[in-house]
Design a protein that fits this description.
mainly alpha; about 75% helix
């Protein structure tokens, strides 16, 4: 049977949703690993990663059940949700790739000022204190403070990696956004195909 038939569409859709399931479990595992090894103490960051992983897992589960059972309602909702996720993810990915250095610095400074626990993690892991300036009266958990050595500012250190990280995140986001639009197309085709094992007079 050539690809594009009922069985091929079903198998491709199942494989795509299994990929999403693995990615969702990987996200949840990374968040748990970060908490377990003390790399991340920000419950907000961990909560967002776990929420994204659970959301992706539920989408994949709906798509997988709909594909296996050829369930029209599940496939319709799966297609709509996947299309909305594609629009959001494609927009965010393009924004990550389009940010210049000045915009990256402004974005990092906003994040720095609004997440105290993540700020402490960065200072501890990168051995730096303060973003663009450091007040000696402020709390800093970097090892340079404990040893009495002068501490570097965090902005230049973060800036070295910010561009690479944003390009990586944008590239990964674009890749998965194209798999999502592929999923929408497969779901649309699969919903309008007849199951050869069903009653020939019924259009499921």
């Amino acid at each position: 049977m050539v690809c594009g038939g009922f069985a091929c569409s079903k198998n491709c859709l199942c494989a795509l949703n299994l990929l999403y399931t693995l990615v969702s479990l990987l996200l949840i595992g990374i968040a748990a690993w970060g908490i377990g090894f003390g790399l991340i103490s920000s419950l907000r960051v961990v909560g967002v990663v776990i929420a994204v992983g659970i959301f992706l897992f539920l989408i994949a589960l709906v798509g997988l059940i709909g594909a296996v059972k050829h369930h029209q309602v599940l496939l319709f909702f799966y297609m709509i949700i996947l299309l909305l996720v594609f629009i959001v993810q494609f927009s965010v990915s393009c924004a990550c790739l389009a940010l210049n250095q000045e915009q990256q610095g402004q974005l990092l400074e906003v994040g720095w000022n609004n997440t105290a626990s993540a700020r402490n993690d960065i200072q501890r892991n990168l051995n730096c204190c303060g973003f663009r300036s450091f007040n000696p009266n402020d709390t800093c958990q970097a090892s340079c403070v404990k040893s009495g050595h002068p501490c570097s500012l965090c902005a230049p250190i973060i800036g070295k990696y910010a561009g690479e990280v944003l390009r990586f995140v944008g590239g990964i986001g674009l890749f998965f956004s194209f798999t999502e639009i592929l999923g929408v197309w497969l779901t649309y085709r699969y919903r309008n195909q007849k199951d050869p094992r069903a009653n020939p007079s019924a259009f499921l």
